[in-house]
Amino acid sequence: MNTIIRKSMLSVAGLAFAGGVFAGPIAAHAANPAVDAKPVAVQSAAPKPQGDQSHITLNDEQTANVKAIIAATKKAGLPERAAVISIATSLQESKLENLGHLGDANDHDSLGLFQQRPTSGWGTPEQITDPAYSTTAFLKGLRQVDGWQDMPLTDAAQTVQVSAYPDAYAQWEQQATDLVAQHWNS
């Protein structure tokens, strides 16, 4: 019930914000027709990163996983914001490493880039450790989050992942944004 209320409140807040962004400039010019129309800088729809940001240096395997996440996002027909959320999530969950079973250090039966669990219905161990498959599974969950495009990254990621550390995703937003900007068109 709390999730439904939170999603509803976020949706209403997003609509109110969007209404203000689009109606505000129109209303301002309508109130004073003598004002000449001037170009206005358009800001990105993506929210700014929240809180302190973390950063790691990527090796070749991690960079290949970034490219695999971006390729799966494009194949799914989703925008760059979906890739940013996916990469930030993978940075938090596995540091962009395609993790197999870690023995005693394993968190339940979590595997792969997103630490998805076969017992939670994410797929077989073989599927979950395939970067394209695991990204597609994550994106399928993301698409089911109403308003994910406009909500803070950590909220979108948490709604899909249901982590014990719901705010942890935010720290990776800047690096994920930079990685998508670097690799989206390559």
Number of distinct beta strands = 0
- N- and C-termini, Cα separation: 43 Å
Total of DSSP H or I helical runs spanning 4+ residues: 7
Biggest sheet character:
none
Succession of helices and strands: HHHHHHH
Radius of gyration: 19 Å
How helical, in percent, are the residues? 40-55%
Keywords: Signal
Organism: Micromonospora zamorensis
Protein name: Secreted protein
Spell out the blueprint of helices and strands.
Blueprint: H1 2-31, H2 60-75, H3 80-94, H4 125-128, H5 131-143, H6 153-161, H7 173-183
Helix pairs in contact: 2-3, 2-5, 3-6, 3-7
Please provide a written account of the structure.
- This protein has 186 residues and is an all-alpha fold.
- The chain has helices at 2-31, 60-75, 80-94, 125-128, 131-143, 153-161, 173-183.
Which terms would index this structure?
Secreted protein; disordered N terminus; 186 residues; 7 helices; mainly alpha; single chain
Concise summary:
This protein is mainly alpha-helical and 186 residues long. Helices cover 53% and strands 0% of the residues.
